[in-house]
Design a protein that fits this description.
The chain has 392 residues and is of the alpha/beta class. Helices cover 26% and strands 26% of the residues. The longest helix has 18 residues. It is elongated.
Length: 392
């Protein structure tokens, strides 16, 4: 098989989505599947929809265009504030956009009027993450200005957490969002359909029976794709963490010996010994241009030596490795994002899944044939992460 490639088991993404949809249903919270981590891959988007997501969301209009070109008709939200230069495309391709700037919303209004349609707007509020958002004190003023514009409709408000700053939401933040929604409705005489309470980082609070307030929507990406909560990388109970597997080819092998410390039980009176153990240094045909090397979960007995733009250098205790062998890695979110963005990595889908209707722009190798996947099982942990616990 061609290398490098990334294998995607779409059934596991569908399963993850279905599990979270079912768990959030009693709280009347809808799931919107975020596809930016896979560059708007149509088959992954369809797996989320098949799992019960009510719509899709992405941060880049090029990804949305890819979805529409693949005949995806589900509602799609643009979750990064639109660029003024792209308002015509935003209106024509997206059902709703998340906004923070009145100048942009005014431009969307004009574009929608020209196209003879109405574009829905969600106002994003700053709650301490620092990435984007309207200050709470200014929200009602902005909402009234939106309501005065033709061609746009104020659909709701939302907040973002734990993206720029690693601060998860709490019950106080959820209650503040609810109070702001109430205040906008009372002062502006409008009914807000959506109160979007964050992303995958909000799941520990919500699944832990925290105070939800009026939150009725979550934008979930990493939890659906990788089955983990972003901040701690802990596995969410019942979800698959191995829907993605990255495969790279060995292009150079060097046998070497180096000293390893052998740690004895603390009760032993003998000193710690250093012994010479056989290792192999291997170089793979993949690099930082293709993947975030530090965000790969390495096979047991393997250490990362370093990575350049085109080479990944590892040290392994498996001295059977030879040129032409393949090595398999489980990628975390950043590694998935960069691998899916690379034009040199082939994307292979799991069995019994439809091919997307069109090839992605900027991805000349496109999507591979369907095949049975046997990715590594669950249980891998990032060396930066604590041992997992299950969310309830």
């Amino acid at each position: 098989m061609p290398t490098p490639r990334i294998e995607i088991d779409l059934r596991k993404i569908c399963h993850n989505t279905r599990c979270l949809v079912d768990r959030l249903r009693p709280s009347r919270i809808n799931v919107v599947g975020v596809t930016k981590g896979v560059c708007g891959h149509p088959a992954v988007a369809q797996a989320m929809l098949d799992g019960g997501a009510v719509g899709l969301a992405d941060a880049r209009i090029s990804n949305v265009e890819r979805l529409r070109n693949a005949s995806v008709t589900a509602p799609i939200s643009l979750i990064r504030t639109p660029m003024l230069s792209q308002v015509e495309q935003v209106v024509s391709l997206c059902d709703v956009s998340h906004n923070t700037e009145i100048a942009v919303i005014a431009a969307l209004s004009e574009a929608a009027s020209r196209q003879g349609t109405v574009h829905d707007v969600i106002l994003m509020v700053e709650f301490g993450d620092g990435r984007e958002g309207i200050l709470p004190a200014n929200l009602e003023v902005i909402a009234r200005r939106v309501l005065a514009l033709k061609g746009v409709r104020l659909k709701g408000i939302g907040a973002n957490f734990a993206c720029l700053n690693a601060a998860p939401p709490d019950s106080v933040a959820m209650n503040r969002i609810s109070c702001l929604a109430d205040a906008v409705e009372q002062s502006c005489g409008v009914l807000l359909q959506v109160v979007s309470g964050g992303n995958s980082a909000s799941l520990p609070l919500i699944l832990g029976a925290g105070s939800l307030g009026r939150t009725n929507c979550l934008r979930l990406g990493e939890a659906l794709l990788l089955g983990v909560e972003p901040l701690t990388q802990t596995r969410i109970a019942g979800l698959h963490t191995d829907a993605f597997c990255l495969i790279a080819e060995v292009i150079e092998v060097h046998a070497c010996d180096r000293s390893d410390r052998v740690f004895r039980p603390s009760s032993s009176s003998e000193p710690v010994a250093e012994v010479c153990l056989p290792h192999a240094r291997v170089i793979l045909a993949i690099g930082q241009q293709d993947v975030d090397a530090v965000d790969l979960l390495l096979p047991p007995g393997t250490n990362l030596v370093g990575a350049t733009s085109d080479h990944l250098v590892l040290e392994t205790r498996d001295r059977r490795m030879k040129v032409g062998d393949e090595m398999r890695f489980q990628p975390n979110y950043s590694a998935v994002l960069r691998a899916m963005s690379s034009g040199d990595i082939l994307v292979e889908l799991g069995p019994d899944q439809p091919e997307p209707a069109s090839q992605p722009n900027g991805h000349p190798r496109g999507v591979g044939s369907k095949r049975s996947l046997t990715p590594k099982g669950e249980g891998y942990l990032s060396p930066r992460s604590p041992r997992p616990f299950e969310l309830v």
